[in-house]
Amino acid sequence: MSQSIAAPPGGSQAPISEGARWMQIVVGIVCMVAAANIQYAWTLFVPEIQATHGWTRASI
């Protein structure tokens, strides 16, 4: 398996390996999934907080 090396336009920085690129995309996807779960869970708690405390969505 060969690795393709991409150099930035300036040419002065170290090249980025193909493996590092895949690792970046995997880490990015994991972070997006983690953030999406928190956002989804928050929407489940807001109505209960409103009912319990009588607060508006803006104040929550």
TrEMBL record:
Keywords of this entry: Membrane, Transmembrane, Transmembrane helix
Transmembrane segments: 22-42
Protein name in UniProt: Oxalate/formate MFS antiporter
Organism of derivation: Azospirillum formosense
